[in-house]
Amino acid sequence: MTNPPVIHLAERRKAPAMPAKRAGKAQDRQSAIISLCVKYCQLLAAYDAGFDADPTGDSEFAGTGRQTFRALRLLTKIVALSPHQSAGAEALSENEARAMTAVLCSLYGLRNGEELLPEEKTFVSFFASCLTDYFGHCVAYRASEDCRVARVP
Hints:
The protein has 153 residues and is an all-alpha fold. Helices cover 59% and strands 0% of the residues.
């Protein structure tokens, strides 16, 4: 019986490298904001589910995950994509406004009169600004000639 061949380091280095990861498909702003809002709400729902499942009563096992830290990072990303961050950007779409409203409703700082975290305060102020632009855009459209022409049967 013979021993298996010895692989030398020089030969191992010649092995082909792992293929590069494919670049993800570029998302438009609306898709990115809605996707981040959904992920935020899912993280907080998972965090809450842990408390529901913990039978100890003193949350011995719940609350040990990193969901809240990830959720705060997502809030920062949502604010960064906000149309209020770039000059000349279009106002929020209705779907973006609905997704961001869901985030607003699930903020931990708004539950039981708790204090808002700095990231949550930033989100609330940017969202309020975005809604102001959104409703201003709606009012401007209703007063425009395009809207009058669209209404005429």
